[in-house]
Amino acid sequence: MGQNFYIVAEEILSSAMKKTVKVKELLKNGEEEQIKEAVKRVGLSRSAYYKYKDYIFAFVEQERQELATLSLLVTDQKGNLSKVLSQIARYHGNILTINQDIPLEQVAHVTITIESSNLVISVEQLISNLEDIVGIKRVKLIKQSFKQR
Description:
By secondary structure, the chain is α+β, with helices and mostly antiparallel strands. It is 33% helix and 28% strand.
């Protein structure tokens, strides 16, 4: 038989439950490395922590994250990649990964994955703008996806 779960307001939780969530956050964020230190910091006994730790979780609303992976051919000239990155930032794209191969015959292959959820222009318009940069030979959308954060 499966467990039932409920979302409840923080006000009705016991102090020990609230502190357990805080300990879990301290450990997760790396602010504390050991349970012993984390429970001491929030004023909770280790036995209370162990009693609740597997049964209480902070509720975090998931947001939809839009990702776009772009493939670019960039001429091997100083500042070209910087121009691309500036253009992405200008339109509020969040760069998640950059992979650049060693240039062959004065051209480098660059793959960039961006979070496109906050772009103020479409991905297609961004690609068009990137293609207009002198030194950029080609820009191609490899993959566009959506995932829960």
